[in-house]
Write a structure and sequence with these properties.
Blueprint (H helix, E strand, L loop, with lengths): L2 H10 L3 H10 L11 H8 L2 H8 L4 H13 L8 E2 H5 L7 H13 L3 E4 L12 E4 L3 H5 L10 H7 L1 H16 L10 H11 L3 H8 L6 H6 L6 E3 L18 H7 L4 E2 L4 E3 L2 H7 L18 E3 L1 H28 L2 E2 L8 H11 L3 H13 L4 E3 L4 E3 L11 H14 L19 H7 L15 H18 L7 E3 L2 H11 L4 H17 L3 E2 L2 E2 L1 H7 L3 H11 L8 E3 L3 E3 L6 H10 L1 E3 L6 E3 L2 H9 L4 H10 L7 H13 L10 E4 L3 H9 L9 E4 L2 E4 L3 H10 L39 H13 L16 H18 L3 E6 L5 E12 L2 E6 L4 E6 L3 E6 H5 L1
Antiparallel strand pairs: 1-3, 2-3, 4-6, 5-6, 7-11, 8-10, 9-10, 12-13, 14-15, 15-17, 16-17, 18-20, 19-20, 21-22, 21-25, 22-23, 23-24
């Protein structure tokens, strides 16, 4: 019976509660909805779905699943039981293995099967994994290499060498069977190394460092070795031979290419004492953690939040005053970063991190017309309470696929790619560039926060101290909880922790109360905590006679924005000093304010009287302001006929030109010269167009959108809605059951199941070198029955050998409407 059909029967026999649990754990199985159990089994067996499911398994589950994979054969339907697996998993118990197999069955990764042929039926339960598991776990399940027979079949160079190698060993008196073909040689080597005792006897005459070298292959079968394909001979035993040459000469290491070798399966298994798994543990490792006080953790987190909000506000003001120019290849270059660092009085690395944070939160955006980063108009963030400003940033950070901490890190990839970009940035990731994009970042961030929360709760102490969590402790737990995602965690863990620290989710190295609330998906609790502990914002400053204003604490966002308009910030920290100067006052006057409004604002928000020097500065600067006016003009109209110019100025047909009279004989227009001349000619006039100067071009800009709505973090979908699950159950239960036919291409099976069944039949025939009978539709729509031997499947095509014509062909899979084994057809 097909594996997909067997899984379909297993799913159909489940209760509704069991199916609900399956859909909660693997929500992709019902998105979109499936019509029947055959389609559900086909989707559950799909490679992508199985890969997603394996990413959620912990280490014990993966170890049992990989052991089951190594002990079974999906082609011959050779199954295995918990009792059989227990002997191959050192440190396990029968109850633990049975419990894990049951959990894997609940996830539709394994299903019940018949006992192997010749095994008496008993109380033991036998299992088979889904058919696509082999493709997902890779060629080294449990870190063990491939068998000698498979290496001989796939490595032609080793196949040629194997017979000679066995003959040399046999002549030297080694207890190994002779061989005349590569496959016989592979079987002889496999038998020679089939037990820990036999391998120990072989290694008794090995060079000193051989055992240490083999220990490096204990957890992974492939390794890098210089000149791996060198011809080492067993006859050099008496000389000073190295461990690599010694192992290659005896076939204990098999060269894959010029730089890599592989430890065969039987050798690796014997090194592990005959067990596939020898580090089995049901409980995660407990790291040794330091401690910090609750007060220190809280103060550090609140200080980081206050500083981040202050710097983001100042950065937005700086970008509003002068947009950030981008490099031709994208991103913000070193010159702009240095300018921002001088304005904010911080280092460039932190500037890059804050720029990324503003970009992913929508506080700045790329203007396509000017190719520069600007602040959207009417930005809501600036006027929000500080706790809501913080939540905006945190939500955007959790949901973003960008990784701010990658700024300043070396660019990974092919040398020479984006050469201009890398030369300008010193081969490092620059802010707001494409290199800081990681599609898996939201999932990794969320999982890291959950692990931090788990470790914090496990290490809770009655004295109120909190555990200090470093990257090593989090990575150790992540490797146990989700070993298939360990590489993703290792590449992002340190950056995520650094980003969490500046957002106050960590304080003094420990998960803060805010971090715990965010990890538990409770933003309201986080807002309440922050509103209770964050110092209240101030709405006043202290004006001094030296033309400065001192902020005695964190100012309200609106007050900060107005102060930055009329004064320049100096120093760092919450007690910022704002210095007034003629230039800063002119900046406020240019923005549309007058002297009276500025002085009224200062009197309203100052805890002291306005000093006389500051009042004189504002009034004197305002008195000199505006004597010269600068405006924009696209073209001018000059004529000695003042009456004609007056008619144009008052005429209704020239309203679109935006005419303004600046002299009795001169008008200026906001339109370009050619446009102005065209309008004048339509009025019957004959203007001359002055081409001596470059015309002023006015580009039409798309109106800037309103500031983006506050980003709301949507966690990666872990469970479908209850209504969606119930609707799916209704379809599966109340629809007439599909008649599962022997032919996977017949119409009574849904198209999704038929496709998977057909691919499963093709892949099985390829592995077994089995002939198949298939109906193939030609270009005229006619179906032809052909008996062929499939060789490979890739990219929607299948390569087949036609025995009748003694030729190879490539067929499109979508033209195949029916497949079955030719041997079964003859029966």
């Amino acid at each position: 019976m097909s594996l997909i059909r067997a899984l379909s029967k297993d799913l159909e026999a489940r209760s509704d509660d069991s199916l609900r649990s399956l859909f909660d754990a693997r929500p992709d199985l019902i998105s979109p909805a499936v019509p029947d159990f055959a389609a559900l089994a086909a989707r559950a067996s799909g490679r992508v779905s199985v890969q997603r499911a394996l990413e959620r398994l912990n280490r014990p589950q993966m170890q049992v699943l990989e052991t089951l994979h190594l002990c079974t054969n999906t082609d011959t339907k050779h199954s295995a039981s918990a009792a059989g697996l227990r002997h191959l998993i050192s440190g396990s118990t029968l109850a633990a293995v049975e419990r894990i197999l049951a959990s894997l069955q609940d996830l539709a990764l394994v299903h019940r099967a018949e006992p192997p042929h010749g095994t008496p039926a008993g109380k033991q339960r036998y299992y088979l994994p889904v058919g696509s598991l082999k493709d997902v776990v890779g060629i080294y399940p449990a870190g063990l290499g491939r068998s000698y027979t498979e290496l001989v079949r796939l490595q032609p160079a080793f196949a040629q060498r194997a017979v000679q190698l066995v003959s040399e060993l046999h002549r030297r008196g080694v207890a190994i069977h002779g061989a005349t073909t590569p496959m016989e040689a592979a079987l002889a080597l496999q038998h020679w190394t089939s037990s820990p005792e036999a391998l120990q006897d072989i290694l008794s005459t090995a060079p000193e460092r051989t055992t240490a070298l083999l220990a490096k292959f204990r957890n992974w079968a492939m390794g890098a070795v210089p000149q791996a394909q060198r011809k080492a001979s067993i006859t050099t035993e008496g000389s000073d031979v190295g461990p690599v040459d010694w192992l290659l000469a005896r076939g204990l290491l098999v060269p894959l290419d010029a730089a890599h070798v592989e430890l065969p399966h039987s050798v690796g298994l014997s090194l592990r004492g005959g067990a596939i798994i020898n580090d089995f543990a049901l409980s995660p490792p407990v790291p040794e953690l330091g401690r910090t006080s609750a007060a220190l953790r809280r103060n550090a987190a609140l200080g980081a939040i206050a500083e981040t909000l202050r710097l983001v506000g100042e950065m937005l003001h700086a970008v509003k005053e002068q947009p950030l120019a981008t490099l031709r290849s994208g991103g913000v270059g070193v010159r702009e970063m240095r300018r921002l660092a001088d304005v904010l009085r911080i280092d460039q690395l932190r500037v890059g991190l804050l720029l990324e944070l503003c970009g992913l939160a929508g506080l700045i955006r790329l203007d396509v017309d000017s190719s520069s980063w600007i602040q959207p108009p009417e930005l809501e963030w600036l006027v929000l309470p500080r706790q809501e400003q913080w939540l905006w940033l945190v939500n955007a950070w959790l949901a973003s696929e960008r990784v701010p901490s990658m700024v300043g890190q070396p660019i990974s990839g092919t040398p020479g790619a984006a050469a201009g970009h890398r030369a300008a940035s010193g081969s490092t990731v620059i802010a707001l560039s494409a290199e800081a994009q990681r599609p898996d970042a939201p999932v990794v961030r969320k999982r890291i926060l959950e692990i931090l929360n788990e470790l914090t709760q496990e290490a809770a102490a009655p004295d109120g101290t909190a555990p200090v969590l470093d990257a090593a402790a989090v990575l150790q737990r992540a490797e146990w909880a989700q070993p298939r995602m360990a590489r993703r965690f290792s590449s992002l863990i340190r950056g995520v922790l650094a980003e969490a620290e500046i957002l106050g989710l960590l304080g003094s190295g420990a998960l803060s109360q805010l971090g715990s609330a965010i990890a538990a998906d409770d933003p309201d609790a986080a807002l309440a905590i922050l509103g209770e502990h964050l110092p209240a914002e101030l709405n006043h400053v202290l004006l001094q006679a030296d033309l400065t204003a001192v902020a005695p604490g964190y100012l309200a966002p609106a007050l900060t924005e107005k102060l930055l308009l009329m004064a320049d910030a100096e120093g760092q920290g919450p007690a910022t000093i704002y210095r007034f100067s003629p230039g800063s006052i002119r900046r406020a006057l240019d923005a549309g304010h007058n002297a009276q409004a500025l002085l009224e604002f200062l009197r309203e928000h100052s805890a002291t009287a306005v000093p006389q020097p500051l009042q004189y500065l504002v009034e004197d600067t305002a008195a000199r302001h505006g004597r010269l006016r600068v405006g924009a003009a696209g073209s001018f109209i000059q004529s000695e006929d003042e009456g004609a110019l007056l008619d144009l100025l008052q005429g209704p047909k020239t309203e679109g030109l935006g005419l303004v009279r600046i002299a009795p004989t001169v008008l200026i227009s906001s339109a370009a010269p050619r446009e102005t001349a065209q309008v004048l000619r339509s009025l019957g006039l004959s203007p001359s167009l002055d081409e001596s100067e470059q015309p002023v071009l006015r580009l039409r800009r798309v109106p800037a959108p309103h500031s983006p709505s506050r980003p709301v973090y949507t966690a990666p979908r872990t469970a479908p809605e209850a209504e969606e699950v119930q609707a799916q159950l209704d379809v599966l239960r109340h629809r007439p059951a599909a008649v599962v036919s022997h032919h996977p291409g017949q119409a009574d099976i849904g198209s999704e199941a038929a496709t998977q069944l057909g691919l499963e039949a093709l892949q099985r025939a390829i592995r077994l070198k089995q002939r198949i009978s298939m109906n193939v539709v030609d270009g005229m729509g006619n179906a032809n029955l052909e008996i062929v031997v499939p060789l490979s499947v890739s990219g929607g095509r299948v390569r087949v050998f036609d025995p009748a014509k003694d030729t190879e062909r490539v067929l499109s899979i979508h033209r195949i409407i029916d497949i079955e084994a030719a041997e079964e057809l003859r029966q």
